[in-house]
Recover the amino acids of this structure.
């Protein structure tokens, strides 16, 4: 007798109503007693030849309807798991293929050639990328030239290459490369010039050192160009950023004073500053300074504050004057900051909290504290920026009645 797959689990396996997990199955498939999968209407041919070996994607066998359901259900189930009632769970925004604007690839020498790609999910074996359906084509176009460049560096090679699509083109940071002698220095400059690289930096263990940057590299946020420090956080796709920012800006309508916590370069700060005063709080010094400089150059009503919100969260009296708080913490969540927000008295101006998260588990844990303090989750917007992966993002709006 066969069982139907009713949903996709957090780790990407198909799950039956009885709770049986089946790797490779998607919602609508059937699985027989011996584990054979009978594909259903949402099971499609994976577009990439490297699937499922490549660790970059886990769900290429699912169509967009099954992926949308997966992203939406994961967000809703995280809320349900902590007993958080959600007013409205919106449909999930999925980023299209070939839109990822940042990725770290690995490279090594093998069999006389250079392998460049992602690692296999459960091993350190490198998948040598011949195609990629998630990377923006401008990033993928760097793979072959990078093979050529690295082939000229003798000896054992084990480097990480972070590619980011900035306003000026591809920003390329190579970690772990030893550059010795004029010939190798020239090879770097030739590579950068010939392939229109926006910035080339090498980190041989002592931090990134720029070798090529014909004009300062920026990323435009809310119409404001912001200097892009190495390693600074960026939303994974422009479409994902637009979905998250559009949602938060809509929720912020009518707010005059907003605190943007874990602000990074100002992904939310600058769009929000079009109609409100914004306090942008961030712990990474480079990101904070970039946000601060652009706020001043663009004359936006932004006050940038350098502060560690884990050790030193904003206290209730510091946010009481804001009518909205936006939080977008790292995967670990924002427990200490949420504990402080939960203590803001109902009589304070603070009327809305938008919590953006890349980890439904820490989000739900934190939000439980908000709910216990009288806040209600009015709206949940799931976002799938990492198409075909099990990684999801969400934006949530908390209000007090
Ligand atoms: C998920 S990113 C979001 C950044 C920004 N909101 C965006 O959308 O681009 C989290 C940010 O929190 C910052 N961060 C990490 N730990 C922090 C801490 N203890 N206090 C304040 N900011 C922190 C990181 O540097 C990063 O910029």
């Amino acid at each position: 007798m066969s069982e139907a797959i009713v949903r996709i689990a957090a780790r990407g396996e198909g799950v039956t109503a009885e709770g049986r997990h089946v790797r490779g199955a998607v919602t609508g498939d059937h699985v027989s007693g011996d584990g054979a999968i009978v594909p259903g209407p949402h099971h499609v041919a994976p577009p990439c030849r490297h699937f499922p070996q490549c660790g970059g994607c886990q769900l290429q066998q699912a169509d967009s309807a099954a992926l949308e359901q997966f992203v939406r259900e994961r967000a809703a189930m995280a809320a349900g798991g902590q007993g958080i009632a959600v007013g409205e769970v919106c449909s999930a925004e999925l980023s299209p293929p070939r839109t990822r604007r940042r990725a770290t690839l690995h490279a090594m020498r093998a069999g006389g050639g250079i392998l460049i790609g992602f690692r296999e999910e459960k091993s350190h074996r490198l998948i040598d990328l011949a195609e990629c359906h998630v990377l923006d084509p401008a990033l993928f176009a760097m793979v072959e030239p990078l093979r050529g460049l690295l082939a000229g560096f003798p000896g054992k090679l084990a480097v990480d290459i972070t590619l980011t699509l900035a306003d000026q083109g591809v920003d390329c940071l190579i970690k772990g490369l030893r550059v010795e002698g004029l010939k190798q220095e020239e090879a770097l400059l030739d590579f950068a010039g010939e392939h229109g690289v926006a910035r080339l930096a090498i980190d041989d263990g002592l931090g990134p050192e720029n070798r090529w940057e014909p004009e300062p590299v920026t990323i435009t946020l809310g119409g404001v160009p912001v200097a892009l420090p190495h390693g600074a956080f960026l939303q994974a796709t422009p479409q994902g950023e637009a979905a998250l920012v559009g949602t938060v800006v809509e929720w912020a309508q009518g707010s005059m004073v907003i605190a943007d916590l874990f602000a990074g370069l100002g992904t939310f700060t600058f769009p929000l500053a079009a109609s409100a005063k914004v306090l942008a709080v961030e712990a990474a010094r480079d990101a904070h300074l970039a946000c601060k400089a652009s706020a001043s150059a663009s004359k936006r009503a932004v006050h940038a504050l350098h502060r560690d919100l884990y050790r030193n969260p904003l206290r209730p009296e510091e946010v009481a004057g804001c009518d909205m708080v936006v939080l977008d913490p790292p995967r670990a969540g924002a427990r200490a900051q949420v504990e402080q927000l939960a203590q803001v008295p109902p009589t304070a101006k603070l009327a809305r909290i938008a919590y953006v998260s890349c980890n439904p588990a820490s989000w739900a844990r934190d939000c439980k504290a908000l709910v216990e303090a009288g806040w209600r989750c009015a709206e949940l917007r799931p976002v799938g920026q990492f198409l075909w992966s099990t990684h999801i993002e969400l934006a949530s709006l908390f209000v007090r009645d």
